[in-house]
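Deliverable D4.2, example record:
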Amino acid sequence: MRKYRIGIDIGGTFTDFVVEGDGERHTFKLLTTPEAPDRAVLAGIDQATAAFALSPAQITAIVHGTTLATNAVIERRGAKVGFVTTRGFRDTLEMGYEYRYDQYDLLIDRTPPLVERRRRFVVPERIAASGAVVLPIDQDALREVARLLAAEGVEAVAVGFLHSYANPGHEKIAEAVLQSELPGIPISLSSDVSPEIREYDRFSTVAANAYVRPLMQSYLSALEIGLRQRGITAPLLLIQSNGGICDVATAKRYPVRLLESGPAGGAIFAAAISDELGLRRTLLLDVGGTTAKLCFIDDCKPNTARSMEVGRVDRYRAGSGLPLRFPVIELSEIGAGGGSIAHVDALGRLQVGPRSAGSSPGPMCYGRGGDMPTVTDANLLLGRIDPDRFAAGTIRLDPDHAAAGMTRTIAEPLGLSIDDACCGVLAVMRENMANAAREHAIDADTSLAGRTLVAIGGGSGLHAAELAAALGIDTVVIPRDAGVGSAVGFLRAPFAFERTLSDLHTLSHFSSEQARQTIDALITQTTAEAVATGHVEHRDIIVTITAQMRYRGQGSELTVPVSRAAINGDTAAASLAEAFEGAYGLLYGRTMPGNDIEILGWAVRSQAPVKPATPPPNCAASTATAEAKPRRLVDPATGKSADAVVRQRSELAAGASLRGPALIVDTGTMIVVPEPWIANVSASGHLTLTSGTATRQDIPA
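Output generated by the structure prediction step:
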């Protein structure tokens, strides 16, 4: 009996499906149903089982990623949350870091907290940074708080006490009392969700977890019921923001870790392509219907971070959003997708995004009630999208409706021709993406020089070559099945569980015994979580350990890989100092000899190795007839039109070469090859676009 796994990525506009097994891979897209996302997922599973003749028993796993939690935070559609904290710290969520992310802007906007002040409550209790109890928790006060929370009609509760990372005892007492007084209300503890120093980050993270928990629990439960009704007993697995897979029970408990789960799958896919083609420095571009994502990949591994921000007021300003503290793949995301709405602002400037038409009503050319022109409309009117074969022909586009909207909203107000208006829309989008890439390079302390652009997502092929030119990149790789790249990446993701714990001390007073106890506890937790999924054997788990370290007196820290052997014995402090100063010197070009070094805490990741993917079938040309009639294609950089060759991607055999201007039609995306770029097909079917300045040796095999 053939066995298959299904990867599903819910985006803001499309839900992508990949069915893979026994050397086969099938892909398709459906419009997302934002009012009930599980409806599109279950409809896609029904379509897959019918189209590919799959029985429920043949499905061995469903691996799923979604932007549902992210969108709920950004759009403020989460639960009514109550927050319980230490007396005197009620306004920590409001005060934040107590600095301005833009000190010269007198009219600065701040991201409002997820919990309003009237639903934030305090109780008398206090734990010292050492973990010692200074003031026992007042349980009578907790019961009174529970009464007030019930009166507010809260749907979830977040608990964050001072220094609970050092001693979670008071938070566990609060959980027990609140659960008895508020039955059925989910309670999130900061010592469980993010047990790290810096109370604002910890409080913000646990508040976000509580904010999306009812929504995600309801969604995942509905999805589980729908799968059981179809006789599917295969496990439902979720992609976390760190690129690892977790079971559905873990996802329900820590839904905040699902933020950016979809883009994380794209980073995994791009890293796998980088490894396959021997590319050591790449930049992922993932353009969907709603957003564009960027991720730097070095040595075939996505860059990672220990925190992220969501809901930035200023998309280019760190500190303008809500901080969330947990391990993540480091991404930059902006509102620049196919559904991004174009408009003329009050100052007469052409703007694109961040507001999106999504899937409902969608771009004007969808004919589903959209009344504002979008990037997809502009691409269609410039000949860059074949209206009869968009989304594999599942959506027939209406160029006349798109033209009417573009004329009324952009061309006439700015006194432009319709072509010039569309070129302007694409130019603004390109610069938005280019600026985001440059800012992300600065934030990630890296450069764009010498990188290859790996483009995935339904919209990337339309913009990849032009964005690469704007960034000084002369090689673009568009993998097979790029249009559903994140969903393919889900099927390459490992089972990975990661936990952190703050444990502040200096190397001058380092206790290797205490460090071993902390690390062993984290290893026990993470390996147990992996084994509990039923898909991982204990003997297969690979454990990696990192320490957060800094010179004493500094305000930020470095993540330093360490081995468990390095913290054993009398030489542990010296070994850790050597590892830290090596990382510090590499980053800053110097060290500070004689300065004491602090360890802020530890992180442990337990991961089952990824099984090799089933090799895709060899790339061979289909028997389909090539498109004979050329297509008018407008270059948005110059505004000039030319007759472009149109080819189906399935017609292009390994070794084929196509010179721009050309349009390549794929099942999940369309790929523009502008002049003077050249598209070449690798042996495994990946497309490589090279600019006219690149040499043949630059092209990956």
